[in-house]
Amino acid sequence: QVQLAESGGGLVQAGGSLRLSCAASGRTGSTDVMNNYVMAWFRQAPGKEREFVSVINWRGTTAMRDSVKGRFTISRDNAKNTVYLQMNNLKPEDTAVYYCASRQGTSTMPYRVGDYDYWGQGTQVTVSS
Predict the structure, then answer these.
(1) What is the phi/psi pair of residue 5, to 5°?
(2) In sequence order, what are the residues at sequence separation of 6 or more whose Cβ sits closer than 8 angstroms to the Cβ of residue 71?
(3) What does pLDDT average to in each consecutive run of 10 residues of the chain (129 residues)?
(4) 18, 44, 54, 129: most buried by Cβ count inside 10 Å?
């Protein structure tokens, strides 16, 4: 069983920064989850569908949605079994519950909710005006 636990959310004023962390654990067979799994961040605002934010694969290749480019950065530290989302210049429209997700490694960079097998419980990010 792969387990994911997000942390780092909170209340911040517009223009501020937060760093989210996702601690991952577990193995499938003899495979290390961090070495062979794609990790991603999604978010869900009240009344809206869960949407893709960013993804990083085992090689460190990344992708992210256009609305956060230049503001957010995704990274991973395999030694710590942790994925990060550095969020700078936050805007009120970034307010949402942020979820960490994972799936088995693929050559593509998945962006759909249905592409992922494991999810954390989420961490609330609230950006005030």
Answers:
(1) -135, 115
(2) 87, 88, 89, 90
(3) 93 98 74 71 97 92 96 91 95 98 83 95 97
(4) 54
- The pLDDT score that the predictor gives to residue 98 is 98
Q: What is the dihedral of CA 12, 51, 122, 79, to 10 degrees?
A: -90
Among 117, 77, 87, 78, residue whose Cα is nearest residue 100: 117
